[in-house]
């Protein structure tokens, strides 16, 4: 596995691979790698891609400096995990190369208005501007044929898909299923910050989604059931929503069909998210 930090080397490496007829699969991460990240690499390998993984804790997508400070960083371990997962080149760009003006603000921002300001974006202003800006830059430097993103961050996937369509980037966005622990908790780099007691409460997110998906009824009933399940477990609920999977607009109670339920909550200061496909049945 090649290890690259220099932006020009990274760009040349990608150019050489394309010139050699290989397709590049991009797996963008913030490190603290777990099986969710490994599944993205496995999907890229299954497609025969030359896998470039990036690890960059993107300051621009953190609206809370404490969250940025507390974000887990395990670089040595990440290199071993990436190598054993079959990553061909691991790129760890420096802050100065990603955001040359840092610590001053970067002047150029990619913003997907309407998708990025609801749900996670409502509680974390600017978050998806940071996400869209970093993914655009990673894609421009790497030039991948495919970019792999987890459904764990469902809104992020929707924002990235829309950005790629709006900007005409020549990359196929591949969404990959959520990887969970045996008990149903969605894997997340933030889970290491949960005490055993907090972890038990965190399970109410996936339980809430299970309750919603087992309910044969309209969206508003699902929202109420999800919220109650999480609140009962002592989770501070940020939102419990049922939305159209593409536009992310809230489903109304006349709608029937497949929608996406998304939940977010704070457990012991740790913000967690989860989501699941649901079937809503509207009234008449
Ligand atoms: P992160 O390092 O948290 O920014 O995540 C990097 C990529 O891994 C994103 O596309 C995430 O959606 C994806 N990812 C994170 N956790 C999971 C999971 N449990 N299952 C599937 N994909 C995940």
Written account of the structure:
The chain has 284 residues and is an alpha/beta fold. The protein folds into 2 domains: 175 residues, 3-Layer(aba) Sandwich (Rossmann fold), CATH 3.40.50.620; 86 residues, 2-Layer Sandwich (Pantoate--beta-alanine Ligase, Chain: A,domain 2), CATH 3.30.1300. The protein has 10 helices and 9 strands. The strands form 2 sheets. The chain has a 6-stranded parallel sheet with strand order 1-4-3-2-5-6, with helices on both faces. The protein has a 3-stranded antiparallel sheet with strand order 7-8-9, with helices on one face. Helix 8 links the parallel strand 5 and strand 6. The longest helix has 18 residues. The protein starts with a strand and ends with a strand. The model has no long low-confidence stretch (mean pLDDT 97). The site of adenosine monophosphate has 17 residues, from helix 2 and strand 5.
Strands, helices and their partners?
Elements: E1 2-4, H1 7-19, E2 24-29, H2 35-46, E3 50-55, H3 65-70, H4 75-85, E4 89-91, H5 95-98, H6 120-123, H7 127-142, E5 146-150, H8 154-167, E6 172-176, H9 196-213, H10 219-232, E7 236-243, E8 257-267, E9 270-280
Helix pairs in contact: 7-8, 9-10
Bound molecules: adenosine monophosphate (AMP).
Residues 29-30, 36-37, 39-40, 149-150, 152-153, 176, 178-179, 186-189 line the site of adenosine monophosphate.
Question: What labels describe this entry?
Answer:
single chain; 284 residues; alpha/beta; Rossmann fold; Pantoate--beta-alanine Ligase, Chain: A,domain 2; 2 domains; three-stranded antiparallel sheet; 10 helices; 9 strands; binds adenosine monophosphate
